[in-house]
Each structure stands twice: as C-alpha cells, then as structure tokens.
Amino acid sequence: MDLLLLLVIVLGIAWQRKTSRRLARLEHELAALRQQLQGEHPSTKAIVETAIAAPNAEDRPAEADPGAPPLAMDTVADATASGEQVPQGEEIASHSFESTLGARWAVWVGGIALALGGIFLIRYSIEAGLIGPEARLVLAGIFGAILLASGEAVRRRMVPQVAARYSNAMIPGVLTAAGAVTLLGATYAAHGYYGFIGPAVAFALLALISLATLALSLLHGQALAGLGLAGSLLTPALVASNAPSAWALFTFLAVTWLASAAAARLRRWTIVPALANLGLGIWVMMYVFEAFPPDPLPPTLALLVMIAGSALVWPGRRFDDVPPEEETWWRFLRRRPLGISLSLALVTLLSAFALVAADDGATVLSVFAGASLMAALGAVGAARSHAVWPAILSAAGAVACIGLMALILLDHVPPVAADGSMPAPRGFGIEIAVSLLLGAVFTFLGFTFLRLHGDRGGKLASLWAVFMSAVPIAVATISFLNFGLLARDWTHGAYGLLLGTALLAAAQWRFRGSDAATGDRAANLVVLGSFAAFAFSLHALTNGVTTTILLSVLGICYIAATRWRPWPALPWAMGAALLLIFGRIAWEPTLVGPAQLGTSPFFNALLPGYGIPAVLAVLAAYGMRNWEDSRARNFLQALATLMVMMALAVLVRHAMNGGVLDDRVPTLGEQSIYTLLTVGLSATLMTLDLKAPSPVFRYGSMIAGVLATLNVLSLHVLALNPYLSGEGTGRWPFVNLLLIGYLLPALCYAGLAYYARDKRPRPYVAMLAIAGSVLGFLWATLSVRRFWHGENIADWKGFLANETYTYSVVWLLIGVVLLVLGSRFDARSLRIASAGLVIITVLKVFLVDMSNLEGILRALSFIGLGLVLMGIGLFYQKILARRPRMPGGLPEAPQDGS
C-alpha cells in the first residue's frame, strides 16, 4: 500500500511537469498573438495585454482574491465584437477544462499527496521499527523544512504570468503548506504523544510555525494564510497545561488576530479576517462557559483588540465610499465588506451576552464588560460608513444586554458567607450608572456619525438618528422599571431632561446646515427623539392622571414651537403624545385607579384626565390647519376626533353605571347616548369639511354615520330592544326609555340625512334616511305595546286583540307621513320606505288580522286598509299628473334623483 502511494506521488509530479510545459507553450502563443494585433486594433491590443499581464494586487477589486484569473472570456467577447478571429467555442471549453484539471487540481492533489506521503513514511518507519521516536521527529522536521525551502525556490523561478493566473493553485504555496503541516504535526507529536518537550516550549513552537506560515502567505496567497490562521487557533487546544492562563491564551489570540489583519491589509483579503473574527469568538465562548468562575477581563480585552483592529487596521477606511442615492435597503444591508462586518458584529454580540450571563451577573465587572463591548462595536458603526451591521447589532445588543442584566439580577440569590451569615442586600447604583452611561455613549456616537458622515450617510444616518435616542431611552426605561423608584425618580427624570435637551440642540445644529423648512430625515428623527426623552422624564417624575395631562401639554409645546422653528417633525410630536395617552388609557382607563376615581358624575378625575388632552388635541389640529404637510395635518385631525369621542364616551359610561368604569354590557339608554354622540360627530365633521376641506373630515363623517347605523341595527333593533331584553321602559308615558332609545336618534338621523343630501353620496344619504325610518317605526310600535302592556313590554306577555289592530292603524299612519315627507322634500328614499311599510301592513292585515281579529275589529282593519290604499293611489296619481311629460309620454323623473 505504501509503495502504491509513492507511485501515485511520482505520477502526480510527472503530470504536473507536463502541465507546466503546456502552460509555457500557451504563454508563448499568447505573446505571439499580442505582437500580431499590435498595429491593427489598439483597443483589442489593450484588452489582450490586460488579460496577459500580471496585475498588481492593488488593481484588483477589494473583494476578489488576488489570485483570481483574469476574465479571459470577456477578452474573447470584446475581441469578437471588434472583428478579430478568436478560438472556437470547443477550443475555449477544452482549454478551460484542461486548465482546471491540469493546472489546478494537479497541484492541489500533489500537495495533499506530499503531506500524506510524509506522514505515511513516518508511520512506516514506526511500524517497521527502523528508527526511534527522536529520529522520526527530526526527520519529519527536516522533511518539513525541505518542503518550505522547495516552495521558496520554486517561487523564485515561477513565470510571472503563471503566478498571477494560478496563485490559488501555485506549486510554491502548496509546498509551503505541506511543509507547515508537517512541522506542526511533528511539534505536536513531540509534545502530545512522546512528551519530549513541555507545554511552554510546544506552545511557543506551534505559535511560531503558525505565525511564520501566516507571514509566508504574503508571498503565496490567502489559502496559506487560512492554514496559518487555523494552526494558530488550534495551537492552544493542542497544548495541554496543568495551570492554564486566560491572560496568556487571549494575549496569544489577540496577537494572532492582529497578524492576520496586518496580512489582510497588505493583500486586501476579506475571507481570512472574517475567519479570524469567528475563531476568536469561538475561543471566547468556550472559555466563558468552561471556566468557573470566568475572568471577564482577558476575553474582553482581546475582543476590544479585534474591534479596534477592524476600525484602524483592516478594513479601516478602505470601504468608506459614498453610497449611491438610489441605494435600496437590500444593497444597504449588504455593504462591503459584508463578511468582515457581519462576523465582527455577531461575535461581539454573542460574546457580550455570554459574559453577562456567565456568572449569573454576580460581578459588576461582567456587566461592565458586556456594556463596553457594545459601546466599542457601536463606535465602529459610527466611525465607518460601511459598518452597517456593527451599528445595527450594537444598538440592539446594548438594549438586550441591559435587559438580560436586569432579568439575571432580579433572580440572583447571593451566596451564603463562610460563617453562615447572609450577605447584605445588593444595591443597584452600579447597574443604573452602567445603563445610563451606555445610553449616553450611543447618543454621543450618533452625533459623531452625523458630524462625520451625515451629509452622505443616507439610510445609515437615519438609523443613527434613531439609535441616538432610542437606545438611551430603552436602557433607561429598563433601568427605571427594575432598579429605580417608581413613585418619583429624580435620577432617571433628570437623565431624560438632559437627553431631550441634548437632542434638541443636535437637531438645531443639524437644521442650521440645511433647509429649515424641510431639513433632512435624520434631523426630524432627532426632534422626535427629543420628545421621547421628555416623555420618559415625565413618566419618571410623575404618575397617574398628572402624567397623562402633562403628555398633552408637552405635545402642545411642540406645536407652539412651529411659530419659531418650521421643522416638519414638530406636529408629529403632538401625534406621538396622543398615541401615548391612548396607550395609558388602554392600560388603566380610570387613570388614577378604581379606588381613587370616585362616583360623582362628570366632576371626577376623568374630566381633566380625558378632557384636557381632548381640548389640547383640538387646539393642535386647529393650529395646524394651514400646515404644509397634509399627512401631519390629517393625522392630528383624526386623533383629535378620536380623543373627543373617547372623552365623551368615558364620561357617559361612568355617569350611567353609578360611578363604576368596567366592561359590563351597556343599557339601551347608555347606548343611545353613544349613538347620539356618533351622529353628532358625523354632523360636526361634515361642517368642518365644508369650511376647511379635509379627507379626515370627509371620510370621518361618513365612517361615524356608518358606525352609528351599525349600532342601530345590532343594538337598538336587536340586542338591547326592551321587547327582547325585558328592560323596563320607565314610568312616565312619553319621557321614557323609548324616547331616548328610538325617537331622539330617529330625529337626529332624519336631520343628518337632510343635511347631507347634496354633500355626501346618495347611498350614504339613503342609509341615514332608512336608519331614521327604522328607529321611528320602532318607537311608534314599541309605544303602542307600552300603551297596552305598561312599563314592561317583554315578549313573554303575548299580544292583545286591540293591540294588534292598533299596530295596523299606526303603521298606516306612519306610511302616509313618510309619503308626505318624501313628496315634500322630493326624497325617493322616504317614499320607498313608505311603500315598504304599507306592504308590511297589507301582509299583516291579510295574514294576521284576518285570523286573530274578530267582529268589528276585523272589519275596521280591512276598511281602514282599503281607504288608506285608495288615498295613496290618488295621491300618486295627482303627483304624476303634475310632472311634465317626456316626448314618449312618460312623466319626467325628478332632477335630483332622490
């Protein structure tokens, strides 16, 4: 088997030599082709020369491997376009296959064969007992040194064109790699298997060989650099020690990372730095979860070296080019060098989480280490415009680290002392300081980015404008809720005031350099961030209804500021204030707690808590009626409308339920008030739309009308109907529940339909008229039942004969009244409602009265029906006779189409 392996090695070397001769012949033919095209087509000549010449590493794209072959196919395409004769497609394909198989695979397989051959020779000597262990290791070292020397000798004699085209499959690089593997294997065997050298010597030799291999990669390419990096990262794992030192480990790893970064900068590599980041991160995770207890300082310093090196050594400023204006979010998230940036951000983020969670937050140093890593990563994102992922993940990681710290510390149980005594409770001053300081750092970093790259930062500038306020507010909120004084915390309150003031100053500085009327997106986001900071301060310093009122006051202050600063973001601050108020109401509708609310109708905490924000919302919407940005104007108008309706509804709810604000089902009287308010809102919005046209007023008025109609159909007609629910209607004959539940809403619907006739679409007006007719019909019908049955009109009481006859009379009268009104106002919807009601009465007389009534009542029912129907027919004949006729003899339709 060993002889067969040696034979394969010899054949591989012979095949490689044959391939080298064919490559030399190919270079000669290309040189002849260049001389032939020299005087014919200058452009084609330049292309061929570019394809043949060995370009420098600095002339290649930064993301490409220096050993990548030139684009020969593009050269052939250009030559074909210029009319030159080029090799046929079969010849090109044959050359590509031959180049891959002969010039690359042969070298790779040959290098692997050499390394395996050396290993198998050592194995053969062991099995045969020819030489001792010391001699084997010496021979292995000599063999590795010979391979290294051979690689250097061959490199010096390589043809430059071949070196440029096949750098990833260069014979010198493969020989050097095989020699490095042999030396690493021999050194590890001397320590791990035979124990000839101690851990310190073995560590030094392995590190030296790995770093030397990394240095030689500057001559032989990125693949050899990856081998040297892998050897360096594996060295600490291969060398066992009875007293491992975290400082020695991470010092060595930091030096290895710097060496790989320096080599990558000289050759502009992007793969090796990403692998170095991942390797260091793996070591940090292994140490943190294996050591007990871990020392957070050594890995933190090593990670800080990695972060600083990424900002200063490589890639540094290399990719800080100005992004295009039309850059999409997908291209933005893939800014070069994606591998380096993403690996750096992920390694730092996961390592920070591990450090914070490693010892259950028992030491302040672990918390400070995680915060320091997030701040340092954020500094890279702020200093470099290409560092998109460091910026994003540092902001998210900062908030997550503080949240993780809070969760761990709240569940942390301090260990019992040696004497059995319980330790003193731990204070939270350090945790508050770390949280607030980390937030302040991100505010400073955001300002730094806007100063350095704000004019050309694009989407990243907008993100930093968000991060410089969102991160400090988020971490301060976590700190306040977990470690602060919920009643009144001056530390967090002052922090919010200072942060808001600083953000306003930054916005003023930002707007000063741009158009004050529009500014830029980043400046407007900073303005909204200042509002968020002041809102946080209010929550830290106040509570209950006071906070709700002051939020609306804060929002109106931003509205007032539009008189001096026409910043587009100012009206949106008032919108944000109202949204926060809605959130507080959803969390606690009473604003002060059910026990402190009181039972007095209207004059309680709900009146200022809901009323003052509603009034200020209306003032804000009125003050912004001429604002240029229609979106902000419409947004404020919509929120003001909702705020007013909510205030009125809550006050009614409290008053109608005996001073209790809960989720019980409303009564018909309470629901009727809501319906009246909604109808009134629709009319108010319609009036406002006529004076100051706005889509909010236009569509809001119709939405209010539709909602009120849905309430009528679902609640007034069915769910809350006293006939079905059994609710008492009251003792008074006319002023009772039926009046407020049906007649008043019917009159309001009629008035709203008349008001909206020429202002809203016809179907909407018809809907209002029909809803009013239904409510009027129900009022009359239920009033008849109350007349015969008293206060309770529940369905279980059945029907009386006189009651049944009265229904027919009343329904016919209502039909006649609707017909008269429809004719008077030329409202077709009322005439249709009249016809429908008459049809219902006819069916009732023939189907119900005929079978249930007897004697004089049955006769009167049919006589009355006949007289009314004849009167209606006569009425229609007179109306149709008065209208002018069309040429075909038909009466002309009404002009308004109603």
TrEMBL record:
For this protein, the parts annotated as crossing the membrane are 105-126, 166-190, 196-216, 223-240, 246-264, 271-289, 301-317, 338-358, 364-383, 390-410, 430-450, 462-487, 493-511, 523-539, 545-562, 569-587, 602-622, 634-652, 672-690, 702-720, 732-752, 764-784, 804-822, 829-847, 859-876
InterPro entries referenced in this protein's UniProt entry, alphabetically: DUF2339_TM, UCP035905_mem
Q: Which UniProt keywords apply?
A: Membrane, Transmembrane, Transmembrane helix
Highest taxon listed in the record's lineage: Bacteria
Q: Which Pfam families match?
A: DUF2339 (PF10101)
Could you tell me what this protein is called?
DUF2339 domain-containing protein
Its source organism is Pseudorhizobium endolithicum
